[in-house]
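Need tokens for this chain, all 614 residues.
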Amino acid sequence: MNKPVSFIENGQLRIPAATELGFDPAEMRRKYDFERDRRLREEGAAQYQDIEDDLHHYNDDPHITAPVERAPVTETIEVAILGGGFGGMLMAARLHEAGIRDFRIIERAGDFGGTWYWNRYPGAQCDVESYIYLPLLDETGYMPSLKYSFQPEILEHAQRIGNHFDLYSRAFFQTQVRELRWNDAAAHWKVTTDRGDVFHARQVVISSGSLNRPKLPGIPGIRDFKGHTFHTSRWDYAYTGGSSTGNLDKLRDKRVGIIGTGATAIQAIPHLGASAARLYVFQRTPSSVDERRNRPTDPEWFKSLKKGWQQERNDNFTKLLVGAAVEEDLVNDGWTELFKSLGELLDGSGASNLTDAELKLLGEIVDYQHDNRVRGRCDDIVKDAATAQALKHWYRPWCKRPCFNDEYLPTFNRPTVTLVDTSGKGVERLTEKGVVVDGVEYELDCLIFATGFEVSRATYTHQAELEIIGRNDVTLGEYWKNGMRTYHGLMSHGFPNLHHMGFTQTGYTPNFTYQLDKQAQHLAKVFADLKARCHVAIEPTLTAEEDYLALVMAPNAMTDYLASCTPGYYNAEGSAKANNDGFLQGHYPEGGLRFYEMLAEWRAKGDYAGLVIR
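Here are the structure tokens for all 614 residues:
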């Protein structure tokens, strides 16, 4: 642990000596740069391949046991919602509350849940506390059993929301939208599906999400392996045995390999390590793995909560993560810890005299202190020194989604578990028998891909597997060919009454459901107001869209931060340019809390500035 040191004296920045800090910041920066540079690949995000043609089975739904048989439906409706995850459900719930009941939810999966419908791998768990992550707790009266809920409880809560708001009667499952086509004369969207359905919808909300379509690495020989394979988002319990709680009994005599050591793998690997005869973990870049410290919910505490408690708790969390002052950290976990460290250091210290460059340097040093503590856990827990060293991350805390898990590191003390570190290069190739790294072949019976989802596509058309055709037959793919173009992150010029729920070009916070709920509340109020005024179509002007793009795409502190990061989907595998690529680039510069305040102020004025209203 680093001893507390003084950074600011009489309002001036003082950089302590390396002996006082316990490390040399310049040397640490060089180490981070070295680790980043050796992971950069010329092809960037193109290193991953589409799951098309003979690989499409990686995208199949393993959870449908009884396909729904029904006749095609033709309807005229007020709102079509594409996606039955928490975003689509929140949109439906907020429409329900606003008095708009004439909507349909169209979802390719067999039930509600979105990411939590697909992700059923052993150990799957939310990494944001359940009291703010599980939406609509106030409305449904549900008390999560743990501070951090596991997948079965999260999926069950999605179903609870579906029942509470009568969403099942307005949902079409096992149905894929194939085309959205704008009818300018009638001012509505024609929505067609793979079931032959035709919906004429006044408004369309796309909430198909970015965490549903698996991606695979472009490893040579990926089609050659003759053993069993699957992706973690389509876990094959028929092969592994067990359930989401573990006990993968069918792996007792199996040699298993897993490619990837990100947020999913961190949760699944302990269960694989406990069950498989042999487990090989193939690592390109280690994750930052801090303590989880999960605990049961105190029923008496939950009973004491007053109406509006969840919104208050979410706002508190969001304020902390943008550096705003709060009287109390209500969530008090690993997410808020780092931001509090910097805030407490600056509070009352005369830090207002510091320049932006000095604040940036101070933030960097605080990050290094945090990283040293997390890396120290590897030495404290993992017995083999070489393995412990290989498990250490060398990048700043927000370069990748930080992980929190108490079982992952101890798994590498098992004699049957081997970490195969690829020194940042990734797996060399696959053969019929297994995986090759540095010329060594690791023979396997089963290979699992924990390689994440497609989150860096420029448009919805590939992820959502549909075509979107706006005014004058312009497709969204064409319009966004050089990057996403929106007004408020929600609408695009030339595509009236089409609304995108998501993260890019909006106000980012790590709690995705908070963002989605704020967007759903906003859109529901806009739709209700437009309907009351008898308006039939809205879309942003080209000027408003361009002005907004200039705002969210302008270089900022996050631009520099991500440029120094190790490759990952946050920064488009290290190839992000001009702040217009990567999952975390192109966001409202004042942060998530201020973004949704801005939307409320914009809405309250009543003139819908920046939109053309018909």
